[in-house]
Design goal:
Blueprint lengths: L1 H16 L12 E6 L11 E5 L2 E6 L4 E6 L2 E9 L17 E5 L4 E9 L2 E6 L5
Parallel strand pairs: 1-7
Antiparallel strand pairs: 1-4, 2-3, 2-5, 5-6, 7-8
């Protein structure tokens, strides 16, 4: 019996010496919502959402997407994507992006619209 107790205490002592793995504390992030809910873009072509030059989402009419992102600056670019619908092959298009500043805990909502320079993001109310 003593031998088992000493073995158990020895095992607990060894486990106590091992480095502990701790989960990271609650990470702060920002929420970015991009919607194509309104019919401001009069095409049935799919629109690609690029975050820091990486394709992050695809939107058809009446859709929205959201991203949990770390706070800081990021570039968002929109472009038409080739698809199954005729006429959706992108030609020469403006490669400008929108620089957004995200703060921790903040919810940012933008809608896609078209202006004289092509696709653009317009800040939208949350509507909650």
């Amino acid at each position: 019996m003593r031998r088992a107790a000493f073995g158990l205490f020895g095992l607990l002592g060894i486990v106590g010496l091992l480095p502990q793995a701790h989960a990271a504390g609650p990470s702060d992030y920002s929420i970015l919502i991009i919607s194509r809910e309104r019919l401001e873009v009069a095409t049935s072509c799919e629109i690609g959402v690029y975050i820091n030059d990486q394709l992050a989402g695809r939107l058809f009419q009446e859709q929205s997407t959201s991203f949990n992102l770390p706070p800081g600056e990021l570039d968002v670019r929109l472009r038409y994507l080739p698809g199954q619908v005729p006429g959706c092959q992108p030609g020469i298009e403006n490669q400008r992006s929108t620089r957004l500043q995200l703060a921790a805990g903040q919810i940012n909502k933008y809608r896609i619209a078209v202006d004289q320079n092509g696709l653009t993001l317009i800040r939208a109310g949350l509507g909650y």
